[in-house]
Design a protein that fits this description.
globular, 6-stranded mixed sheet, alpha+beta, 3 helices, 157 residues
Length: 157
Amino acid sequence: MNEYIPAQYAMRLTVGEHAPRHIRRIVRSFLGEWDMPELSDAVELGVTELLANVVRHVPDRHCALLLLRQRTGVRVEVTDGSDELPRMPDRLDTETENGRGLLLLDATADKWGVSLWSGGGKTVWFECGAGPAPGTPHTRDPRTRDTQYAKKVSRKY
């Protein structure tokens, strides 16, 4: 008998310091069910960084998380009510413990960006692709990385 595995997981939450740990477990579980466990490290790291940014920069700490199964990978979206855009650091201070989240996201995700909402708030998203089909050579085109902010006005969920 075939089991139905949903193609997405969505939740609204108020994040605290320990929320990323619990969300990582949920993400890992879905990636296992979707036969994409090889994406777990990158997706869990990305989710952790985006939720940590909500904890640090969104006053009410409310957000929505959307995990979408795609044909060749996963898309993660974290939406919050803040209009403050995430910024890549101009320079890294080796003494500072914070400020590396977007650099880590950029290094591990295939694409990422920010969508602004017309009524206020934003969605920070990233995509990680599953490996190519068996027997298909994998070459990564650096032009596929979208690290520029995708500033667009969209409708809210």
